[in-house]
């Protein structure tokens, strides 16, 4: 196992009815900015629950945060913050709303000591976040794990870029499985697949004998494989226990625990970001296209873990090594198909003629040594995308 330092300071308020606890966890004298997306929270009752919980607080709202939150939208919130002396952010939504709110929290207080006052530098130049407004969230779509980690992704002019700072980790997160019952099948599928791939990217690398991390990761993968399809099936789609297990698995997949002390490979996400930024494909649907291709192209580097994955997740124990790996990859693709997401570029009407621009974008963004060994160069990324056709 590799050396590591692990700390997660986000308090989780899990369970039905926990939105009411907001009043206890946000300082009584705080001036709160409630951020959210397109307004679905007003039709599913979540907005009313938040408003009731904040009835004794001074609060304002900022809406319109998109999937793949846009810098041009997020920056408009700063006028509200300054005009009303907002000192607390409450994000109400899925991963995009939480990510966007992390950027808002950092941008509101950003001043690079005379070097620059442009908040975009936080993302584009990785300018250090020295202070940020305190942030909490009410999660409505389990997927990204952003509710309890330090990372976020923001889009500007077709460039989807990550940033991270411990100062934007949410202080607390409300996880009420009941609020997910109004999600569409597409949102459920995307959430399960995103969580699955997060787990795989911290698991499917090479062994450092991190047995605890491996078993945790395998437990999350098995949970998502078991519960994901049930959340789409008519007879079990309203089952709160199923939704609760998916919600908790998604949080655990990217709260830092399973990635502590083990190598990680975020190539699938980085290549996926370019597909989203260039072609506006749902984030999770880029992952379901790219991950199987990464598994195929990088099978030699990942051989030991692929065989472990085949045995422990899919119970594939017979046949030679090559056939077991093939069947594990096929099983992964079949799971994605069961979750109603694409597994080929052709499924989203992209072809070989679209690959060069994606490689150009990867190179432009410095994504030239991806993977657990830094061996996924632009040429290897090209091969991955060709394999995904």
Mind summarizing the main beta sheet? Answer: 6 strands, parallel
Bulk shape: globular
Please tell me how large the radius of gyration is. 21 Å
CATH domain class of the largest domain: Mainly Alpha
Order of helices and strands: EHEHHEHHEHHEEEEHHHHHHHHH
Please estimate the helix content.
40-55%
Total domains: 2
CATH superfamily of the largest domain: Dehydroquinate synthase-like - alpha domain
Would you tell me the structural class of the helices and strands?
Answer: alpha/beta
Strand content: 5-15%
Number of strands: 8
What is CATH's topology name of the largest domain?
A: Dehydroquinate synthase-like, alpha domain
Low-confidence regions: none
What count of helical segments does DSSP give? 16
What is the typical, i.e. mean, pLDDT?
Answer: 96
In whole angstroms, the N-to-C terminal distance is 36 Å
* Major sheet strand order: 1-8-5-4-2-3
Describe the overall structure.
By secondary structure, this protein is of the alpha/beta class. The chain folds into two domains: 11-178, Rossmann fold (3-Layer(aba) Sandwich); 187-387, Dehydroquinate synthase-like - alpha domain (Dehydroquinate synthase-like, alpha domain), CATH 1.20.1090. Helix content is 46%, strand content 11%. The protein contains 16 helices and eight strands. It has helices at 22-25, 40-43, 46-53, 71-74, 77-84, 95-107, 121-124, 185-203, 211-232, 240-253, 267-279, 283-297, 303-314, 321-338, 355-364, 378-387; strands at 11-14, 31-35, 58-62, 88-93, 135-139, 151-156, 159-164, 172-175. Strands 1-8-5-4-2-3 form a six-stranded parallel sheet, with helices on one face. Helix 8 (185-203) packs parallel to helix 10, helix 9 runs antiparallel to helix 10 (240-253) and helix 11 (267-279) packs across helix 12. It starts with 10 loop residues before the first strand and ends with a helix.
């Amino acid at each position: 196992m590799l050396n590591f330092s692990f700390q997660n300071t986000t308090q989780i308020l899990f369970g039905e009815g926990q939105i009411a606890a907001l009043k206890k966890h946000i300082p009584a004298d705080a001036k709160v900015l409630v951020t959210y997306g397109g307004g679905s929270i007003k039709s599913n009752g979540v907005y009313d629950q938040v408003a009731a919980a904040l009835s004794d607080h001074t609060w304002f709202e900022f809406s319109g945060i998109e999937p793949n939150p846009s810098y041009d939208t997020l920056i408009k919130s700063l006028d509200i913050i300054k005009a009303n002396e907002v000192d607390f952010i409450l994000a109400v939504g899925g991963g995009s709303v939480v990510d966007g709110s992390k950027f808002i929290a950092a941008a509101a207080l950003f001043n690079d000591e005379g070097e620059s006052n442009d908040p975009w530098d936080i993302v584009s130049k990785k300018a250090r976040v020295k202070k940020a407004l305190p942030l909490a969230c009410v999660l409505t779509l389990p997927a990204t794990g952003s509710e309890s980690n330090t990372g976020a992704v923001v889009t500007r002019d077709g460039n989807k870029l990550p940033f991270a700072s411990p100062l934007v980790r949410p202080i607390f997160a409300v996880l009420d499985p009941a609020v997910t019952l109004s999600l569409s099948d597409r949102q459920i599928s995307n959430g399960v697949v995103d969580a699955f791939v997060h787990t795989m990217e911290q698991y499917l690398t090479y062994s450092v004998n991190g047995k605890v991390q491996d078993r945790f990761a395998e437990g999350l993968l098995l949970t998502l494989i078991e519960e994901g399809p049930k959340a789409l099936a008519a007879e079990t789609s309203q089952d709160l226990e199923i939704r609760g297990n998916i919600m908790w698995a998604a949080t655990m997949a990217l709260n830092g625990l399973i990635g502590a002390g083990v190598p990680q490979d975020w190539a699938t996400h980085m290549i996926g970001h370019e597909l989203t930024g260039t072609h506006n494909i749902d984030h999770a649907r880029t992952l379901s296209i790219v991950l199987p291709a990464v598994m195929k192209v990088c099978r030699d580097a990942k051989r030991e873990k692929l065989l472990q994955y085949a045995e422990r997740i899919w119970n594939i124990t017979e046949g030679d090594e090559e056939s077991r790996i093939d069947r594990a990859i096929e099983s992964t693709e079949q799971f994605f198909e069961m979750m109603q997401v694409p597994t080929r570029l052709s499924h989203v009407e992209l072809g070989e003629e679209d690959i060069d621009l994606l490689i150009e974008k990867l190179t432009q963004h410095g994504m030239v040594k991806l993977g657990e060994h830094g061996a996924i160069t632009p040429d290897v990324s090209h091969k991955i995308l060709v394999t995904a056709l």
